[in-house]
Design brief:
The relative contact order is 0.14. The longest helix has 14 residues. The protein has five helices and six strands, in the order ααβααββββαβ. The protein is α+β, with helices and mostly antiparallel strands and 150 residues long. Strands 1-3-2 form a three-stranded antiparallel beta sheet. Strands 5-4-6 form a three-stranded mixed beta sheet, with no helix packed on it. It has two domains: 84 residues, Arc Repressor Mutant, subunit A (Orthogonal Bundle); 44 residues, Ferric-uptake regulator, C-terminal dimerisarion domain (Dna Ligase, domain 1, 2-Layer Sandwich), CATH 3.30.1490.190.
C-alpha cells in the first residue's frame, strides 16, 4: 500500500490500520502490541499530538514508554503511513497519511479543518515553476479564524 492511498475518514479505521500493518510487514517491521495500539489511536478521527497518542496507548498498556511512541511515529512517518503536521505554534500533530490535503487552523478556538489538495494547486505550480520546489501541504496549516470566531 502506498501511504497516500489510505484516506482517513473515507475508509473504516480498521481497514486503514490493517493496510498500515501490512505495509509494516512488507518493510520487515515487527507488529508489536504497542504499534497496534498506536495505530488504533492514530486512526481515530482528528489530529493528535505525540503526547495525546502516548496517553491513549498508555491507558491500555501502561508499560509502553513514551520513547517507544516517538520511535514508532518516526517509523510510520518514514514509511509515509503517517503525516506530521505543524498546527500554529503548538506541538506537531499526527494523522494517517492521505491524499494531498492541507489544514486550516483557527487561532482563536483551535479548530482544525482539512482543506483538499486541489486548493493548493496554484501555490504548488508557482513554487515548482519559480523555485523548482514541491510543497507538502499535509505538513502545515494556514492560520486564521473560523466562521464561528469571526
Amino acid at each position: 500500500m502506498d501511504g497516500q492511498d489510505a484516506v482517513a475518514g473515507r475508509y473504516p479505521a480498521a481497514d486503514v490500520r490493517e493496510q498500515a500493518l501490512a505495509r509494516l510487514r512488507e518493510e520487515g517491521g515487527r507488529i508489536t502490541p504497542a504499534r497496534r495500539l498506536l495505530l488504533d489511536a492514530i486512526t481515530s478521527p482528528g489530529h493528535h499530538t505525540a503526547g495525546e497518542l502516548a496517553e491513549t496507548v498508555r491507558a491500555s498498556a501502561p508499560g509502553v514508554h513514551v520513547t517507544t511512541i516517538y520511535r514508532n511515529l518516526d517509523e510510520l512517518e518514514r514509511l509515509r503511513l503517517v503525516d506530521r503536521t505543524y498546527i500554529s505554534n503548538g506541538p506537531a500533530t499526527y494523522h494517517m497519511a492521505s491524499v494531498a490535503h492541507g489544514h486550516l487552523a483557527c487561532e482563536s478556538c483551535g479548530a482544525i479543518a482539512d482543506l483538499p489538495g486541489e486548493a493548493f494547486a496554484t501555490l504548488h505550480d508557482a513554487a515548482m515553476s519559480m523555485y523548482g520546489f514541491e510543497i507538502s501541504p499535509a505538513r502545515f496549516a494556514i492560520p486564521g479564524r473560523c466562521a464561528r470566531c469571526t
